[in-house]
Write a structure and sequence with these properties.
4 helices, 2 strands, about 140 residues, mainly alpha, single chain
Length: about 140
Amino acid sequence: MKIDTIQSGHQTLPQTATSPAAESESFHKLLQSRIEQSVKAQQVKAAAPADFIAKASPELRIEGLSLTETTLSTLDSYGQALANLSYSAEELEPFIAGLEEETAALIELKQEFSPEDPLAKLLDRVATVSYLESAKYRRGDYRG
């Protein structure tokens, strides 16, 4: 390296003789290859959920969605009952018993699915919320 190529703390690199058309073409090729890689990656990701659907029967998937809907409805009713101050803690017991049964059914049904299945993840989340609400009741959080 020559000392005279360093100017004010910066090193100057020798310029290569490339035409603007050649630079544009190489950039275009690079951009096109990145786009193709991105499209291929998206196609692989899009194909993955279909694999999960194929592994579980449609009846099982419908049962899982139905049970999830039922549990969410019970949670909603329980929330409305909690907001109504005329309910005593003992009057909330049927809601809690229902949540506990539904939680057990969600966990049992979740075992039928692959762990990576989006429906299994949904069942797990709903079961977790349901369990937490029943555990808070059993712990005495809602007794005045």
